[in-house]
Amino acid sequence: MAKKYTTIFFDLDGTIIDSGEGVSNSVLYALERFGIKETKENALKFIGPPLAESFKEFYGFDSEKATRGIEIYREYYREKGIYECYLYDGIKELLRWLKDEGYKVVLCTSKPEEYAHRVLNYFGILDLFDFACGATMDEKTRATKDEVMTYAIEMSSATPSTTLMIGDRKFDINSAIKFGLDSVGVTFGYGSEEELKGAGATYIANSAMEIKEILA
């Protein structure tokens, strides 16, 4: 029987890796330089949206201040924060199964592409992706999920009707719907089942194994 999907798009933070420690530490490092004291728990809200958007929405930064915030954030992130993360259970095995089964596997993340490549390489899974697409370092082009998805579709020559987006936040689901992709909302990341269902996820998965069951 022909597969319903031939291409699988993955978000990174909250879907492939739990990056909470590194992201929150980097956020706290940046905010402290602006004299803002914050809790690690509240800093986790930065996972998902582009950094500039989060600095503006959560702390009222203007564009110039948000750009400076990103620069300070990266002082910590590129040296320490990028490695303060871990793979979710079963994800590496899922990726290997997808490759063995002949799926085209594509990363579609709002994280800068350079950092995304470093993370995938660090965990020894870069070779399991056909394409790893992310934001530009200045986060001014390919800054939103929609822009990254446009780029990922072009790079991978994906057909939306046979492409499945897997992510943990409403941003992933919203973009999938906009481009005509089905989606899996994963509950082991940073979005709740309520958020994912509310956004219109085609499927909900509570583990990597459940993602495989959707595709098998």
Please provide a brief summary of the model.
With 216 residues, the chain is an alpha/beta fold. Helices cover 45% and strands 16% of the residues.
Describe the structure.
- By secondary structure, the chain is of the alpha/beta class.
- The chain has helices at residues 20-33, 40-43, 51-59, 63-77, 91-100, 113-122, 145-156, 170-178, 193-199, 208-215, and strands at 7-10, 17-18, 86-87, 104-112, 131-135, 163-167, 182-186, 203-205.
- Helix 8 runs parallel beside helix 9 (193-199).
- The chain contains ten helices and eight strands.
- The N and C termini lie close together (11 Å).
- The mean pLDDT is 94.
- The chain has a six-stranded parallel beta sheet with strand order 5-4-1-6-7-8, with helices on both faces. A two-stranded antiparallel sheet has the order 2-3.
Fourth-tier CATH superfamily name of the largest domain = HAD superfamily/HAD-like
Q: In sequence order, what are the helices and strands, one letter per element?
A: EEHHHHEHEHEHEHEHEH
CATH architecture of the largest domain: 3-Layer(aba) Sandwich
Oligomer: single chain
The chain-level mean pLDDT equals: 94
Helix content: 40-55%
Assign the CATH topology of the largest domain: Rossmann fold
Helix/strand-derived category reads: alpha/beta
Rg to the nearest angstrom?
17 Å
